[in-house]
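Because discrete structure vocabularies remain unfamiliar, it helps to consider an illustrative case, giving the amino acid sequence and backbone structure tokens:
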Amino acid sequence: MAALVAPMHAAAQQAEPEQQPALTLRAALALAAQANPVLAAARYEAEAQEGLVIQAAARPNPTLSFERVGRSGGGESDGEKTWQLSQQLELGGKRSARLAAAERGRDAAGAALEAQRMELHASVVTAFYDVLVAQERLRLAQDGSELARRATEAANKRVAAGKVSPVDETKARLAEANVQLEQSNATAALASARQRLAAHWQQPGASGSRGAERAERAERVEGDIGLLPEPPSASAMESWRAQSPALMPARLELERRKAVSQLELANRAPDLTLSVGSKRMVDPSRSQTVLGLSLPLPLFDRNQGNVLAAQRQADKAGAELAAAAVRLESELAQAVQELRAARQALALLRGEILPGAQQASEAARKGFEFGKHNFIDVLDAQRTLLQARAQYLTTLSDGHRAAAAIERILGHGTPYNQH
């Protein structure tokens, strides 16, 4: 059994040596973290929010004004001249509320960046194992072609000896052609899987040696596709809401909306403007000190519309948080169930189905060569073996996809930390 299953655990090693080393999962994740444009956009947004926090902490600038009234001659001292310095004083806690809203926006952008990082991580993991599975499918298709070729040779010999009908030879050639078609489809599927993986770090219009090198990194990948992680522990399942990076952006968006609501309430209070200056009269020897105080009267505009809009936006963010929690909880439960089912199926495939199908295929082929079985038995046994191997790879692919989804939701204690 070890000789049967071990080749299916490793990536295809028969490829010609290349200058570029084989791509590991760790290297693929590093490439994506460095060059993925979606992650870069989220990072820029987080940096932009930091600038908004700096701006929110700034106080209003003072205003310097100059006024000249009348001219009685051509001298520099003709007319009245007034210099005045004004300073707006924010009342009602506007500055602290504005700063709190900006800080919550920064926190929300940081959470969105982390969620995008986990989303990218899970996507790269899924695409990486898709390539590994596609490589193994191609190898198995090549093995299937070899089996079909041997069956055709055996049929030819039996027909030449006059022991079976030429119809069996025709059936063997048709079976060989079908397996070759499957090999062609597996080659195309591998090329598509490689492109999906490389798309995580390729740049639009990338050219030159560096762009070509990054594209080639997905041509040869290596890893152990036979290893599926354990399902998350009960404690991780119970506390997922508090630690989930996928849920954190919605939670912090609610906090930001609440802070904006408080800011709009603070904006209802009018701001006080103090002025101080000097007024020089027509007579240069006379001057006056000017003091001023202005306060808008909130008779018509009390910011009532913005307050209502901010409150409803906070309510909307709360509803979106609840919806995200329900959706993620459903996704988590489904992914855990799929991972458990995949592990159970793999145990059955490795322990019974694959060894039995392998033995049945060998027995049918040898029995046909010695005249103990007809060719239909050979084809059925060969088809059963290929289907069992295909089911094995499909189960592995489903298991790795489920594990990546669990990792994206839980974040902490991820199943792929060992890579």
In short: Confidence is low (pLDDT under 50) at residues 1-18. The beta strands are 63-69, 80-89, 272-280, 287-294. The two ends are 26 Å apart (CA to CA). The longest helix spans residues 94-160.
